[in-house]
Amino acid sequence: MKRDFQAPGRSPVFAREAAVATSHPLATSAAIEVLQDGGNAVDAAIAAVAVQCVVEPHMTGIGGDCFAIVTEPDGRLTGFNGSGAAPRAATPEKLAELGVSEITDTSPHAVTVPGAVRAWETLLKAHGTQDFKTLLKRAVNYARDGFPVAPRVAADWANNIDKLNEDPVSAARYLINGSSPETGAVLKFPHLAETLEAIGAEGADAIYSGPIAEDIVAAVTAKGGVMTTDDLAACHTTAVSPVVRDYKGHTIAELPPNGQGVIALIILGILERFGLENLDPFGAERFHLEMEAARIAYAVRDKFVTDPGYMNVCHTRLIGEDYIDQLAQMISVDKRLDTMPDASLAPQTDTVYLSVVDKDGLAVSFINSLFSDFGSGIVAPESGVLLHCRGRSFKAQAGFANSIDGGKRPMHTIIPAMALKNGAPWLSFGVMGGHYQACGHAHLLTNIIDYGMDVQAAIDFPRMFFDLETHALQAERLVPPATVEGLKKLGHSVVAAPGAIGGSQAIMIDKARHVLTAGSDPRKDGHAAGY
């Protein structure tokens, strides 16, 4: 069922040579500048994300983690897992000894080793053409000389005053007399500027050894954490082969665990069995199938997905046809599943996303995250590094797939993605929004593949997700009232989403016409550009 969809207020960006899509205009302009100065897509992505680490501090930072997929013009894919591990001393036994039964956002035990900067360096060595000093120049300037706070950033900042006030250093760095900055306020982060300059001069080792590493460890241990400088020194980025699955003539590539990308492939595999293209894209039946597939797939995630060294089943089995058949058979088209059946298999022995495609056809799908808004809220005082809280994904107790353990990487929600058509890059895309991301990948792809939307219309299209505890559906305000009523008749509890569910950026590559089409999310102040 192909239809014409008009974006409610924004058209896609068309370009001939190169395109960039990020969640902030200053990041997009930094990437365009690098491309026009002769850099490639990887160079531009690093410059863009470094800017975002300054101008979107609630969403991302050098104290977070990073994942990326790089695709050559001939379709060759390389994945990069830039997630850090739990400190070596962080075991269930140690946490029990410390009286910790739950790992919260602001717990020092939620701070795993930040892997982002090591990942940037690894990407540059593998595919880049320029050095850190050149690429971090814009970010350094914004941190040292100041940048104006964007409207969406200001709105999100205002929701985190209490969190930032919990820590005196966070309050001093990120609040103004105890309040969040207003739109247009010019902020400076001099400590962060010095750290970015150190990375430019010394490379990633500036973060993982020496005074900055000692500053990070001191900030964590002062709160009761068990991180050491040896934990930081051991940080490494892993090159991985993306896991792929076809969806209606398109090859969808995701990164393997410890990320949840395989869950997006499971959702697509389930939906492929229901003829989605014949359904009204706005209708209750489409959203019912999408949400039921997601609920089942996330049950699989929570049971199996973690650091691959700890998984008792290979991730490739999760996307096997027999297993997806088993999962799809759980769905009734006319009634909500009241309880999630056991998704069994026999055992075996907040975020920024950006995409860049350059004039030579090199495509980069790139995501960098602190997990929650302002991460853990813990700031290393001398270096200005705001630390993420990815360890919040861990269970403090033993016996779970995602139980904490020394040197173990937690299950990650952040997942870049790439789609190929006829063996060549076709769509570089990603979704922001924590746990929503796997569901969001499936939603975006079905909008484009099943319903023929352009990238901007697909991004703008209303979204739904479910509460991970109650399984009540959350609907964005543009979901039609008739659809909400139809879902209730199928047995769903449906509530209004408190705001936008996630966000997205995407670039479509039309090799036949030599045209790039970029879309970005207006709900997140996204910005796309090209030339």
Keywords:
35% helix, alpha+beta, seven-stranded antiparallel sheet
Write up what this structure looks like.
- This protein is α+β, with helices and mostly antiparallel strands and 531 residues long.
- Helices cover 35% and strands 19% of the residues.
- Strands 1-20-19-15-14-9-8 form a 7-stranded antiparallel sheet. Strands 7-4-3-11-10-2-21 form a 7-stranded antiparallel sheet, with helices on one face.
- Helix 1 runs antiparallel to helix 2 (41-55), helix 6 packs antiparallel against helix 10 and helix 15 (284-304) packs across helix 20 (481-489).
- 56% of the residues are buried.
How would the blueprint of this fold be written?
Layout: E1 13-15, E2 19-22, H1 25-36, H2 41-55, E3 65-71, E4 77-82, H3 92-97, H4 116-127, H5 132-135, H6 137-145, E5 147-148, H7 151-158, H8 161-165, H9 168-174, E6 186-187, H10 190-202, H11 205-208, H12 210-221, H13 229-233, E7 238-240, E8 243-247, E9 250-254, H14 261-271, H15 284-304, H16 315-318, H17 321-328, E10 351-357, E11 363-369, E12 378-380, E13 385-387, E14 416-421, E15 424-432, H18 437-449, H19 455-460, E16 464-466, E17 473-475, H20 481-489, E18 494-496, E19 503-510, E20 515-520, E21 527-530
Parallel strand pairs: 17-18
Antiparallel strand pairs: 1-20, 2-10, 2-21, 3-4, 3-11, 4-7, 5-6, 8-9, 9-14, 10-11, 12-13, 14-15, 15-19, 16-17, 19-20
Helix pairs in contact: 1-2, 2-6, 6-10, 14-15, 14-17, 14-18, 15-20
